[in-house]
Amino acid sequence: MSRLRLNHLTRRFEGMVAVDDLSLEVADGEFLTLLGPSGCGKTTTLRMIAGFLGPDAGDIWFDDRRMTDVPPHRRNTAMVFQSYALFPHMSVAENVGFGLLMRKLPKMESAARVAEALDLVSLTGLEDRRPGQLSGGQQQRVALARAIVTRPDILLFDEPLSNLDAKLREKVRVEIRELQRRLRITSIYVTHDQAEALVVSDRIVVMNRGRIEQIGDPDTIYRAPDNAFVADFIGLTNIIEGMLLDDGTVDTPIGRLRIDGGRPPKSTRVKLIWRPEDMKATANGQANRLSGTVRQVIYRGNVTEFTFDVNGHSLRGQLDNDLRPQEGEAITLGLEADRIRVVI
Amino acid sequence: MTALALPRPAGGLPRLSLRVFLAALAAILLLLWTGVPLLMAVLWSLVDPDKPWSYPDFLPPSLSLAQWQYVFTYSSIGRAVATSFTIAPLATLLAFVLSLPTAYALGRYRFAGKETLKLLILLPIVMPGMVIALFLSRAFDMLGLSQSLFGLVLGHTLLGMPFMLRILATAFEAIPQDLIDAARNLGAGWPALVRRVLVPMVLPGLFAGAIFTFIASLEEFNLTFVIGTPTFETIPTVLFGYLGYHFVRTNAAVVSIILMVPSIVLLFIAERYLKTEYLSSAFGKL
Amino acid sequence: MRARLAIVLLVLPGAGFIFLFLAVALTITALQSVGVLGFGREPGFTWEFWAALFDRQFLDSFLFSAKVGTGSAFGTLLLAYPLALFLRRRRAGGRFIGSVVKIPLFVPALVAAFLILNAMAFHGVINGVLLGLGLIGQPLLMMNDKFGWGVLAIQVWKKLPFQLLILASVLATIRTDIEDAARNLGAGPWQVLRHIILPLSMPGILIAVVLVFIMTFGDFAITRIAGPIYPTSLAVLMHTKALTLSEWNLAACIGMVIMVASLAFVGVYARTARLLQGTAP
User: Fold this and answer.
1) Which residues 49-78 of C have a C-beta within 8 angstroms of B?
2) Are strands A303-310 and A288-299 parallel, antiparallel or unpaired?
3) Which of A16, A59, A66 is most worth mutating to test chain B (most B CB atoms within 10 A of its CB)?
4) ipTM beyond cut 0.85
5) Looking at beta carbons, which residues of chain B come within 8 Å of C107?
6) What is the residue-wise DSSP string for C69-97?
7) Tens of pLDDT along C56-90?
8) Distance CA B250, CA B80 (A)
9) Residue B57's domain spans which residues?
10) Contacts of A71 in chain C (CB under 8 A)
11) Would you tell me which CATH number, out of the four given (3.40.50.150, 3.40.630.10, 3.40.50.300, 3.40.720.10), belongs to the domain A4-223?
12) Model confidence pLDDT, tens digit, residues A129-175
């Protein structure tokens, strides 16, 4: 269990900058997710924390220990790989016990800890199986057990759920979260799946092109994105550009919209962001009314998403199924002023 | 603790210099290991017979082509070269003709016993050459094929076929089935299919297979030694003569180079202009 | 059924040719070893040749061949495996080293014999350098020596790139993320080698060793050139018995021994190769 500090980390590959002057502090026992599109630098950062890559500039600290030049096998981190990376020639028990073998733990204690770890991931009874004989989900658990059994300072996850099917993914991500809460190991989790990030994290770091776009807890990231990139990356969004007028309203292609206070200084050119579910079917009493024609209707099981055209601009809406609109129908939705976020 | 960001050489870990040193050391040792024997052979072939080269001279005192002249004038190397370069193309051709249908089957069909067959094909080069040569020669004696060019061609074909088969099979395997289906779909019957689709697509493989078979024939020794000599000499048998109980260093050097050069040239062509998968299928991934 | 017939017909020319010649050679050897075929004597089944086989000379040759076979196989491995490990991760100079190392592949066996014979001869360059550096007082006898160092040197020189190619291809199948996982869990470089890479490359090592053994165990030419007069390799003994002493039946027995030993190891190779295919990703 350690505090993690990344200090002005930079890493280049063949001329282009993968991680750009990144600084970050992670509290002891925190679950932090690095979230972003491919190529944003999240995996590179993770691998630098693990020690597989050395930064071109900057430092990595675990508590008060400077780890930047320490080779990976001496860092006391543990990684859960995307491909699980289980040793094919070893049994489940040998896989899980490998880290303990490297730390020269006596056999009895090692066996006990392995049993304990397997129990935590509900794999008791499979000790003698080979990885090739396990399902994807089971392999993933072995990878998890292998990581936690060593009681690492920092637990690292490299998109561990990408190879699982959707249902399993949802189940396992919650289990990982529960497990981490119990064990209180500082964890860094890399994913490109924003829904996953919202479920598991204490805080989310949204990354883009090697830089941090925003850090915050899931609710803040979702409700109060700092910029258009974050807003667009997390969940579905409507983004409209407009001119901030002196009277406090914003002139946009879809009409004059009322917004709440908290407008950005100086700039009169702004972007307005709001979520589809923020537009309500009842337009009465709402600060803004948006009228248009429904185009695409997408049934999602619990809600219906749809797009509708307002003055030639396509907006995304979401309503409960009993209120769902028809294609081609004229529709008016209401949008409260405090639901609109204003960014530059 | 606000540490300043210090710039660091790319790569991070400081053990880089040890790796570079080891790499350089390995490179030098390998160069010596491989190059010195070759260099010695070349030098020895150029030694002036009037100024013998021995310790403590580091290099031969003078170079001349006298040895080369001697070998070509007084030994049977001329005929041997002719024989070698007659047998090789014939054996290659025969190997190609025999291998073509088999390679096609191996490359494009699935059938029981395929893996065992692939193993069987390797046997001529894996099995002890002198055993096969010696007892095959008994059969050849009985059939009157000993001391005959035809017998030698047959023998060389046997030893070249593993290469030809494996390389051709790989080439056939690589033809996407879609191409054949498309050609069929557009109306191509078997002859047209072979001429316009199959042969052009396996041409590189064919070329590679031919090169390896040719070289295998040029270098073949055991069978030729038993059933060919003394009527027929090839470059390897001549070389063996100079290496055996009558070790004549300078002559051996000359003949070595004569044997090596075509092989190296051909293999260089093969490696340069063809895909390296052929090289590894011939030598490596047995 | 038609498809089956078609395949048989296609396979016949190539495989049939090989099978025919090998079968003939094997049959003649077998028959001669039990006297069914013979020259200058009455043909008839007998074990007398096999009984007479195991004399001092044969046993010495057998041991010599076995020694040279295993020595070559493992000697080459000792050099090839570290090289393969080194070339595994792309390093500076890797390509150059890779190319240089492959050269002996292109050198015909007889020429290789000459090259090394020349270098290691009594008046060769190696002795010259060692004498010159003052490391030895007298030239070393490294060729045609009783132990077989000459033969070993030539075989190792020639077979090194061959083993290297096999080992390199096997090592390439070991995924790097497995190595990373081991390092992450606390394994230093030696431990990664010992616990991960060695076990996973065992089938490949076995194949490389077995193949070189088979090729050197039954060798004739190189032993004749660079080996001692006595003991000599089984193949040379066989050749002498047949063509010099006209003892064809005894020669056939020796031939059978070489053949059976080689086939046994080919079996090991086949079993291991299939295992390798099973674990390939």
Assistant:
1) none
2) antiparallel
3) A59
4) no
5) 38, 260, 263-264
6) HHHHHHHHHHHHHHHHHHHHS--TTHHHH
7) 999 999 999 999 999 999 999 999 999 898 888 76
8) 18
9) 20-64
10) 183, 188
11) 3.40.50.300
12) 999 999 988 999 999 999 999 999 999 999 999 888 888 898 899 99
